[in-house]
Hints:
By secondary structure, this protein is mostly beta strands. It has a domain at about 10-55. It contains no helices and four strands. A hairpin with a 2-residue loop joins strand 3 and strand 4 (about 50-55).
Amino acid sequence: MVESISLKSVKKRIFAISDDANDMYIVLKDKNDIPLNIEDKTPRIKVYDNNRLVLDKELEVIDSENGIC
């Protein structure tokens, strides 16, 4: 079962882009630039797969003061 997390309850989280060879991901990091872990895994959203765009939409910022998207 995949654990879910509510971004409204997470303070000072920011999205960051990470590059893994030819793939690119959006990951959640805290204010100290440490990746958020759930069950020892970092949730990520794939943007590029082998240099091919797979995510083509804007992420809505719902709380710009706390950096939550």
